[in-house]
Amino acid sequence: MTITTRLATAALSGLLLAATPTAPAAAQAQPQYQPRATTQTQKPTALPITAADRQEGAKAHRQLLAEYGGPYSGPQVPYIESIGKNIAVQSGLGSAKTDFTVTMLNSPVENAFANPGGYIYLTRQLAALANNEAELAAVLGHEVGHVAARHSAKRQSAAQRNSIIGAIGSILSGVVLGNTGLGQLGQQLFSSGSQLLTLKFSRAQESEADQLAVTYLKRAGYDPTALGAILQRLAAQNALDAQLQGTSDSTPTWASTHPEPAARVRTALALAGQARGITNRDAYLTRIDGLMYGDDPRQGMVEGRTFTHPEMKLTFTAPAGSFLANGTQAVSIGGQNGQGQFTSAPFSGDLDTYVRAVFGKLSSQAQLAPTQIERTTVNGIPAAYGQARVTTSDGPVDVTVFAYAFAQGQAYHFVTIAPAGRGGAFDPMYRSLRRISTTEASQIRPRRLRIVTVKAGDTIRTLAARMAYTDAPLQRFLVLNGLTETTRLPTGTKVKLVTY
Question: Which of the pair, 426 or 64, is modelled with greater confidence?
Answer without folding.
Answer: 426
